[in-house]
């Protein structure tokens, strides 16, 4: 990968093939020198010119899948925490919630600590506890009918918002241990927007509101309004345009020379998916002859799946094989692929069988036999930069 940084500030900037739109009056690219990042940045990293990026897809309750994989990664980090081994993190929807759990600070007696709020194991357990409250299995037939007819979202946002308040408290986006980038889609401008720890305006947003905004999947939850000075966004799930945010995370590094001083000679990128269906669950040919009501509850899944794979293929071509690792659980059943299957027994079952479904995705192929070895090798590369 070349060390040149591409593009500059302004409208229509293109970095690594990703379009960054700066709307008039909004300092989207106006970065700050992030003290929480400088505090932990290793001078050896600057000398070696290596930047380590973690990217986590969206996928509803299937966020338990990357949580399990990250737990496996932690076993190979020699006692270090996940946040200590990456220089930046990006996540969409449930991926943003998981990233926030792993990179937000633990609070002790009102003081933020140099320690993560959750470990991967704790985050995985949290998914099991909260999923049924956010996606209750008791949704009425009448509720389904209203959602299908486009009258109201299927689920209330109140339980999700309550749990985000409990989990993340008053922490802001800029409080994270390492820079965090979260995409969402703004209905007011019909464009993809980004919430960044290093943004002067959006970095001050409560982390819980950012997670709520990127998780507002159409038909499932209502949109989230974010208003304030230089801020007027009506956000829905970032997965509608960037369910796999890996390229956006890479571009964000190139756009932030103050916090990621160059030259950037290489990146180490770990990209984690939230599951792909098997042939049966992928087959949506029956939708071809259906009208709007037949499509409505499937459209979100179709769009998210398509954008995830496209981002992976582009990242795979941009980086050399040794510097990019994409892990995905494949061959999942229709039941496993449901974003809103919040039954704790189902999630526990999914968590237990994740490892047998995970594979390395590279060059359009799925490699099953070596994913744990590849993850171990990748962990060694992460530690070499320490």
UniProtKB/TrEMBL annotation:
Keyword Cytoplasm: no
Residues spanned by motif GXSXG: 91-95
Active site: 93 (nucleophile), 237 (proton acceptor)
InterPro entries given in the database record: Acyl_Trfase/lysoPLipase, PNPLA_dom
Motif DGA/G positions after renumbering to this chain: 237-239
Pfam families membership: Patatin
GO MF terms, alphabetically ordered: monoacylglycerol lipase activity; phospholipase activity
Family: Belongs to the patatin family.
Official protein name in the record: Patatin
